[in-house]
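A sample follows:
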Amino acid sequence: MKSITRSLALVAAALAVVLPTAAQNLPEARILGMTDPEYDPMAGIQMGIAGLFERAIPGMARTAKLYVPEATHLGSYMVVLNVPGGVETAQWLSDSGWLALADQDKFLLYVLEPGETGQWGSPADEQAYFETAYNAIGQNAPEGRGIWYLPPESYYVVGYGPAGSLLQQLAMKDPTLVAASAFVDASDIDAAYLEQMATTYYATPDWNGTQVPASAVPMPVMIVAAEELSPDAGNVLAYWQDANHTAATGEDFAGGTIYTQQDGTLDYYVADSSRTAVAVLPNHDVSQDWVASTTMIYEEFLSNYTRYGGAVGGNTLGSRPDYAALGVKYKTMQIDGRLREYLVYVPEAVKAKAEPAPVVFSLHGMGMTMYAMFDYSRWWEIADQEGFILVVPTSLNTGNQTRWNVADDSTDLVFIDRLVETIKADYNVDATRLYLGGQSNGSMMTLAAGRNLPLSEKFAALGSTSGGGTSDNVAGSFVPYYLVWGEFDFWPWQLSEDYVGSTVNYWLQRNKAEGSTTAPTSEANNGRFVTSDWNDAPGQNVFRYTLTKGRGHSIIPAEMRLLWDWYELWQRDADGNVVYVGP
């Protein structure tokens, strides 16, 4: 958990921001569909809209509200919540402190609201609205994401009152979409629904080939109640304690109790360095101090977590990094009239040493940003352990998303080249140990950089996940490559399949490997990882390919460790040639 000192400061800041209701200037909601985003080429990945917007829910005469703070970047974290009944949405968002907190911490609000009467109907009456509005959050169409805003890979979910129980049921149905949640007087869910979740299975199995029910997936949960928990709410608490494998004994937390995940449990579902938790706060009436309660929910619980993943077997929950505490630096440069942005992390151990440090450059996938890649990959933890500098850049804001341009004449190739030279000039870098990799579209960009012969010669090794690309021109010097793929990825993982096969074949020819695409030199099965190696004539391993069982189109932290273990095998010598320096 974040430090008490920082927490108190944040509470004080939030309280200071929220003025008495009469003195507030409430934002006026605009129709999202009639809003044209304004993209400034020198604003980088900043969102093209700001303010409070009304969004039509597809297929019904209902709306939801979207709040985008000023200067919020694409893909920012998002809180999905429902307003209590009998309130005006904008007024309640202000009175409760959510607007001020979103402004302060730069996250999005996606707000479910009652119909024209201002009151929620029965759960049966509201179920279709909740399901449709919730499922449309990330819709890739004008009615959803893409033109006006870009939601993150997972949400924070906060439910209020009986209607909020519907929101909790949706979170139960697929916890992989939720980084953390809080439910305020919103946990009266009957035992029949809990039992149903035990037989509601994901479409793909885990890395052992085992079907996974929704009830087995961990999700950090805070349960808040104005009085003692009802029997149904008590069952819900027990449900989440089981899912999160929490210890039987809890600790004091915000006037209630928090139960933390036991060590040695939930491997791969939760990052090794992290722990999920379940908090319960009975006899806590949030209406007595809305702002303090909102701040506590977000700052003390929700924002401690992050989550990324596609298939259930490749979905990782983890602690969210504190950039200020780590000392992560935000940097920019200008290329072709566009602002280019990147993050640099230099571990304290690297700063304390006199010798130059290796550098890992990590590229995000399409629709993601440097912030998402930094948080989800957990590369910073390996940088701490191994002593290298981490650089995470952002691609261009294309007007409706982020995407690396992999064309041969791409300005992104210019950016990566300039970035490498800038890092070498600004930091104490071992220029013989520079490594490049990425996920999905970032993998495609890594492959494009590898095919660009002058740029490829700046790196000692390349390694990426879940993205392909090839060329008919296999000329160029030797650059070792490692490609990692998910069992349930967007494209089939089998080497006989054209997309991944052609990508592998390019590097086999480029690095003069023996054998063929479907005939590696060796194959090893290590738990959930099946790894194929191809050697050249002298017997040196020049290309590696790993299948990660259970994973969809995502990454898991263990794959970053695989990539680093590959990277550190290679170095460029005084003549600029790649040489093997591993064991």
Notes: The first strand starts at residue 30 and ends at 31. Confidence is low (pLDDT under 50) at residues 1-23. The CA atoms of residues 346 and 389 lie 5 Å apart.
